[in-house]
Amino acid sequence: QVQLVESGGGLVQAGGSLRLSCAASGSIATINAMAWYRQAPGKQRELVARITSGGSTAYADLVKGRFTISINNAKNTVYLQMNSLKPEDTAVYYCNAVALSGASFFNYWGQGTQVTVSS
Predict the structure, then answer these.
(1) pLDDT band at 75, cuts 50/70/90?
(2) Is the separation of the CB atoms in 81 and 17 below 8 Å?
(3) Which of 31, 32, 30, 10 has its CA nearest to residue 20?
């Protein structure tokens, strides 16, 4: 089992910045990759950024060049630095961890943190 706790959301003006944090605990040695997803009202949850245990990263086209995902292994924490925020970035942001146990992958989710960008 992996537990994820997000923090860092809030209200910011367009053009501003926020940094989200996601602290992992439990069976963290089994984590294969971590990611940030977001879900806006009336829309499906979408992948924002992903980082693997090896440090490889991937981003949604909409956030490339503005968002940066990183990980602090000593603190078991993954971050999402969000710059040049736009109103369309408004959503609940969820931390995700994919853990490998035996031959099966398991998805774990945080409770979500609200990000609101005002115009």
Answers:
(1) confident
(2) yes
(3) 10
- Asked whether the predicted pLDDT for residue 94 surpasses 90, the reply is yes
Long-range contacts of 56-64 (CB under 8 A, 24+ apart): 62/88, 63/89
Q: How many Cβ atoms from other residues are within 10 Å of residue 44's Cβ? A: 7
Q: Are strands 77-82 and 91-101 parallel, antiparallel or unpaired?
A: unpaired
Of 21, 9, 37, 16, the closest CA to residue 108 belongs to 37
Identify the CA nearest to 118 among candidates 1, 5, 15: 15
**49 SS3 class:** strand
CA distance 35 to 80: 9
What average pLDDT score do residues 31-50 get? 96
